[in-house]
Amino acid sequence: MSAFRTAPRASSRIQHPSDMFTNNPYAQGGWPNPQNPLSINNATWGKDSPPQPSVYGALPNAVPPSPPNILTFLFVSLNPTILNCTVVGPHAQKYFDVTTNSPNVGASTIFLKAGRPFAVVEWHNQPTVEIYGVAPRQAAARWLELSHDRAYQSMQVQGRWYAWVPRDKVISLFTVGPNPPELLARVTREPEMVKLEITAQAVQAGLLEPAVVATVLLQSGRNYG
Q1: Is the peptide bond before 127 cis (omega within 30 degrees of 0)?
Q2: Given the DSSP bridges, would you call strands 135-139 and 128-131 parallel, antiparallel or unpaired?
């Protein structure tokens, strides 16, 4: 498998309101929100948010000197969206299931392959997310917090900050300062599936489950702001 390529430096120009992200902020990068294409994310940048300039203004420009060990997870059997699917990983083994209750679409639960739930997203007027033992129940728009310039979205896991950055049709996960950003994962949409590629280093750091939950939110097509 080919190594990740780091993203080129990009402008953090403030966009015209008509061009800004929707409540699913990565619609700007080619990920549409079919339910509400004109809505605007109203997430508040809180006092505990990471310093804004430390990520997007310093994206790495060079290809890493050695290719990382990359693990691929495929969200397949979309029924009809990522909110009902199976996640298979290396050796075509099932790792997770995503199940959304119907017809009200009140909550999405993500299960480990043994059938034990480890995360839930509640789709109310103000959607919430909880990852058991990792992230307490909180507003989804707070856990994936949009930057001031709407250029990236921050995620905190075990006291460390990370950033999801959309570029073309790829959403990449980077570390956040003080060191130079490091590419840890990326999400792409493939025909009839969604692909999450993540480094073994990120998995060892406990980022696999949060990355799976973030992928579900980012690819849900639903408003969570």
Answers
A1: no
A2: antiparallel
Residue 181: which of 201, 161, 151, 167 has the closest Cα? 161
Parallel, antiparallel, or unpaired: how do β-strands 193-199 and 70-76 relate? antiparallel
* Residue 134 three-state SS: coil
pTM metric for this prediction: 0.73
SS3 34: coil
Q: Of 223, 208, 202, which is closest to residue 32 (Cα–Cα)?
A: 223
Residue 102's CB is within 10 A of a number of other CB atoms, namely: 9
The mean of the pLDDT values for the chain is 78
Instruction: Look at residue 147 in the predicted model and tell me its pLDDT.
Output: 93
DSSP 157-196: ETTEEEEEEEETTEEEEEE-SSSPP-EEEEEEEETTEEEE
**Using CA atoms, how far apart are residues 89 and 215, in angstroms rounded to an integer?**
14
Question: pLDDT tens digit string along 87-100?
Answer: 999 999 999 999 99
Domains of the chain (ranges; CATH) run 65-218 (2.40.160)
Q: Residue 33's pLDDT band (boundaries 50, 70, 90)?
A: very low
Cβ(137)–Cβ(127) below 8 Å: no
- Cα→Cα distances 110→86, 120, 193, Å: 10, 6, 17
